[in-house]
Amino acid sequence: MKNRNITQVRPLALVLGATGGIGGAVARRLSDRGWNVRAMNRNPVGAQAKHPQFEWVHGDAMNAADVLSAAEGASLIVHAVNPPGYKDWDKLVLPMLDNTIAAARIVGARVLLPGTVYNYGPDAFLDITEESPQNPVTRKGAIRVEMERRLRRAADDGVPALIVRAGDFFGPGAANSWFSQGLIKMGKPVRSVTQPGKTGIGHQWAYLPDVAETMVRLIEQADRLPSFAQFNMEGVWDPDGRRMIRAIERVVQQPLKVGAFPWWSLLPASPFVPFMRELREMRYLWQQPVRMRNERLRAFLGSEPSTPLDLAVEATLRSLGCLDERSARATVNLPVL
Hints:
Distance between the termini: 57 Å
Pfam family, one: Epimerase
Protein name: SDR family oxidoreductase
Strand order of the largest sheet: 3-2-1-4-5-7-11
Oligomer: single chain
Number of helices: 12
Organism: Rhizobium oryzicola
């Protein structure tokens, strides 16, 4: 019998938003796990220089023909694209998702959407499950609810969809986050932190690499997933609003001055700066405990990927330019909680 070289065909994923935090993290994890990753960008040459491991194609998520062309051969479309700077959400977000759904229907791909807690209002707190009512109190939350409604309707029509919901992101690549924009100052050694919520109010965080790992593990078991699948991550639960601050102190090896977040300062800029307006609208998520339950995820995967908090915080601070080799202890000496 002749020896034959059998080439294993690698699955193809199209990642929309691969230059962003969660899109980039998922793209890298898929690539590491044997997927071919195609990414679409309006400046593919510049993106290729920064992320050479992906196949970059030119296109705009607002152009249905571009998305369909980029999706050719894909079995998965990661929809992690958002308007830059929170600008024109009401005009851009839903058309972009519609283009993804249309392309997925034609090529036979599953759509993966990173979910948020913005979908929920206070009636769903404290503990949020996948079946909790979605009654948002913000404009962005209402758009997120409509996105998921369209995905559910598409799933009923033969386009499988997966939503993985997590708390506030932190980690390498999460530069536009509450951690980097609210707690500390990027690019500077950490000497103080601001606390968005009051002490005693719990908050939920999500380490970006853990979120990406969770998504990829779910995709790797796609044959077990229902046509419309939703999973909550527990991530990092901060029961009193100080657990994250204490972790930062351990990593930088010094006590930190803790100040209240200046919510009042957002008001004058809110009408003119979309990011400031979005921060202000999300204040309600810091005024009462918000926690998602992950029983469904643990039952499906057996466990939730979870990096020890101090290691996650160290990697985050280093990526934000807040640490150097002299200001952080060796990771092997960090306590694991």
